[in-house]
């Protein structure tokens, strides 16, 4: 979908073999081996032509599907152009990446925001009328809160046993 909107897509995975495997299944996806400041940016600039290439405007969007428990953050240079940052994690609602991105002035979307947006659009396509967006959002937020509470209770129980 991003490629159809004119984006160049770069893929990074904590497991380089998995990144290569996934990229092989998708046309035009380029693998970045490391996210350290110099290497990642240099790889993206090289793939775009060069840093002096006017077509290269830096990172415009970051889509993260890494579990929140990994505590992933990005080299600040990758957030320099204030890309839109979407973290697909639901729990916790505010991940390390979203905290970092917000502090850098990036527009941010949480996993719950994505879920509601998808649900609203699907409702409208299937039902042919306006979706009850507020009610849908309230239900998702309630479920995320319940999942967060369950996670906290499990962590407390595990800590009490050790």
UniProtKB/TrEMBL annotation:
UniProt GO MF annotations: shikimate 3-dehydrogenase (NADP+) activity
Name listed for the protein in its UniProt record: SDH C-terminal domain-containing protein
Organism listed in the record: Phaeomonas parva
SDH C-terminal domain boundaries: 111-140
Database matches in InterPro entries: NAD(P)-bd_dom_sf, SDH_C, Shikimate_DH_fam
Gene Ontology BP, a term: shikimate metabolic process
Pfam families: SDH_C (PF18317)
